[in-house]
Automatic annotation (TrEMBL):
This is Lrp/AsnC family transcriptional regulator. GO terms for cellular component: cytosol. Keywords: DNA-binding, Transcription, Transcription regulation. PROSITE patterns: HTH_ASNC_2. GO terms for biological process: regulation of DNA-templated transcription; response to amino acid. Residues 3-64 form the HTH asnC-type domain. It comes from Thiomicrorhabdus sediminis. It holds the Pfam family AsnC_trans_reg.
């Protein structure tokens, strides 16, 4: 799907506030509500919009410790990676899992836990017990400098 300026404006508006009504979006970008709705539906149907989420404040929920964990695997096979990815996807404290290159690690995880004790439990009772995990290197996040979810469209 080729995006024009109105499509980009709809997407940018939704990324900033996904709770806006069609009428509010149309008013913000200068389209009639019916034209805006047609475009909005086309963006959903094309897969450009993949879902809607509510962003929560982790600290207010008692999740004060964020860590970035680099994981090294023993074998680089499709089967080993598939087993790791399936297992890791079932652990709720893992927010993100990236298969990476250019490092000594194969995966990078972003995790969020209550405290250091919860991190230790996650590491020792879950992550290091996954078959194939041979190395773990953790960095703790001191402060989020940039924290955004919007994808640049320009």
């Amino acid at each position: 799907m080729q995006l024009d300026n109105y499509d980009k404006a709809i997407l940018n508006t939704l990324q900033n506030n996904g709770r806006l009504s069609n009428q509010e979006i149309a008013d913000k970008i200068g389209l009639s509500p019916s034209a805006c709705l047609r475009r909005f539906k086309a963006l959903e149907e094309s897969g450009m919009i993949t879902g809607y989420r509510c962003l929560l404040d982790a600290k207010n929920l008692g999740l004060d410790l964020m860590a970035i964990i680099n994981i090294a695997m023993d074998r680089h096979t499709q089967e080993r990676f598939a087993e790791f990815e399936e297992t890791i996807s079932k652990i709720p404290n893992i927010l993100e899992c990236l298969l990476i290159t250019g490092q000594t690690a194969d995966y990078q995880l972003k995790v969020l836990v209550k405290d250091l004790d919860a991190y230790q439990d996650l590491l020792l009772n879950h992550i290091t017990r996954i078959p194939g995990v041979t190395g773990v290197l953790t960095s703790f996040v001191l402060r989020k400098v940039i924290d955004k979810t919007a994808i640049p469209l320009d």
